[in-house]
Amino acid sequence: MAGAIQALKISELVNYYENPRHAIGSSEEDTLKKLFDAVGIQYMLNLAEDVQRNGLLGNQQIVVVYSETIHKYVVYEGNRRVAAIKLLLAPEHFGFLDRATIEKAKKIRQQGEIPDVINCYITNEEEAFFIMERLHSGEDKGRGTKQWTPREKEVFKVRQSHEKNLSYLIDFYVKKYFDGFDITTILPFTTIQRIFNNREVKKEIGLDIANESSFTSARMQLIIDASKWIVSEAEAADAAVTRLFNKARVIEDKLIPWIQEYTHGKSMDDNSAGEQSKPVDTDGQSDADKADDNPTNTGSNFTGSGAATSVGGESDRQQDDGTTGSSFNGRKGNFGGSRNLPYFFQGLNYSSLNPNDAETHGVTAVCRELQLFSDRRLVATYPIATTFLVRSIIEQSIIYYSKKHYIQGQNKLIWEKIKDIGKLSKIIENYKRNLPNYITDTTMRQYFTNLFGNYEDNVDPLNWVVHRPAEFQLDSSTLVELPRKGLLTLINFLLS
Description:
Blueprint: E1 4-9, E2 13-15, H1 28-39, H2 41-54, E3 62-67, E4 72-77, H3 79-89, H4 99-109, E5 117-122, H5 125-136, H6 150-161, H7 166-177, H8 189-196, H9 199-205, H10 217-236, H11 241-244, H12 248-263, H13 287-293, H14 361-375, H15 383-404, H16 415-418, H17 424-433, H18 435-438, H19 442-452, H20 455-458, H21 460-467, H22 476-495
Parallel strand pairs: 2-4, 3-5
Antiparallel strand pairs: 1-5, 3-4
Helix pairs in contact: 2-3, 2-4, 7-8, 7-10, 9-12, 14-15, 15-21, 15-22, 19-22
């Protein structure tokens, strides 16, 4: 691979008609319209403003290929940025945009100079395609860019500004006092920040961000136990944590009485737990100790073909969290294997579903039960029911997405194309044939292809259990691994 960096005029650049983000364009203007529709007009305005303020980042090369046919350079990588610059340079030429959007673009342009010449990487089509695939195929087993988690974003901010927020400090001190325990196996990083950063809750616990000595082992134990209690309360209410603890007043009314009862007669300034302890339950017995007293029940042995497990076989020694060698006692808040991955569908996010929308009722019900099975770790105990739920969430999330999203370039919902298709296999086949027009996000398209490209391997086994449970059942480790293969990420996208 060998290309060259060269300064090119914006007028020499043509946006790529076959950009995977949208349907194939018929002209430059049509291509830009399809790009704006696919990305979102406000997103494009946000990008334009960022380019105006900060310019093009040094690591974000515009990749172009010279076309002998039109005698211009076709933009293979960087179409959004080039389109944003074109908008700022000549907003009046974007006739497909409404007047308000054009006026916003003009105001951004007035904030400073807009470059009409930019550095581009000129190469051939083969290398351009390689660069596009590498940049837009997600993590790709380590070959691509790995997105930062909320925790990693916070670590970066702290290292740059040296300003620590509450969730960062809780995460740090829980790890310090409790042998590297990851509190996000109980609650997500952002939820910890939202709940425990509540002014009255912080005051009740006795936490002071400006005084890190207030982050004692006793207070960190309290937060661990409070997090477990929060999850159990959500379970009991058959609701997501984000919905049950969704307002400051609600958080205070629910959590502060629990904290007061928990701390009654206890010193929260106690650091006697030391730096290498295990989190203990409120009765004073450690999780590890209780695991010895209450060993995991792995009594379900499965029969059938393929993924079946046999009594005394290797799968029997594997825990239902997909790890080996770690005991789990089945109670809320215990942490799983060494990989510290969310168990099953614990990371399922359906908070954007409108409970007043009848279209959400079915998929919401499935999500709630998947959450229940995840939080209570019921996969090994009820593998058949688990399989039913997994197959159902695949079908229901695709249907929901189809009812809410339009086919690219058409004023028609995806649902209009698939509503008469009865079988899930046929629905997925329809999606595969029309994937660029159904899902514009390239990473999600890759997830979809990886998961459903071979229907026989990934979905058919679910169908076999549904239709022939007497002959075929899936073992718990197989079921638990499914969300980790990208299914959870894809489902969250379809429901967002």
